Amino acid sequence: MTYYSALSDNASLFANESSLKYRTRGKYRNSPAGAGMGAARSRSKSFHFMVLFVFIILSSFLFGMMVDAYASGNSLDTSLTNVHEPAVVFAKQGDSLWSIARSHAQDGTDLRSYIEAMKKLNGIKNGYIMEGQKIVLPD
């Protein structure tokens, strides 16, 4: 083998080097460095687009709900004004459940069932109350 033929063999090796295939991630790729990174980047991009899409959909949904609530006139302030406070009485000396029921029950109401409702609302086991005790009256 002559010097020229050895040189030409080396040149053919260098010429064919660009066509060598490098094994990366189980597949043959033509480029040795960064092979397979394009797929990872595209997956990351598609994930970011999906997150952005979901965010836009949820934002538009919430915006629509706010516009609907404003248009219908419902607000937190108007709903709180309808809250009903229960009637409360503080027992005085000499009061009993019977006397409180007689003075606060509506006409025609059975006093025994009214007293039972008072006992249940206030957690009274026996029929005794003390002076200054807070008694919540049933509706």
UniProtKB/TrEMBL annotation:
It comes from the Bacteria. Gene3D superfamilies: LysM domain. Keywords: Membrane, Transmembrane, Transmembrane helix. The chain crosses the membrane at residues 47-67. Residues 88-138 form the LysM domain. It holds the Pfam family LysM. This is LysM peptidoglycan-binding domain-containing protein. It comes from Ferviditalea candida.
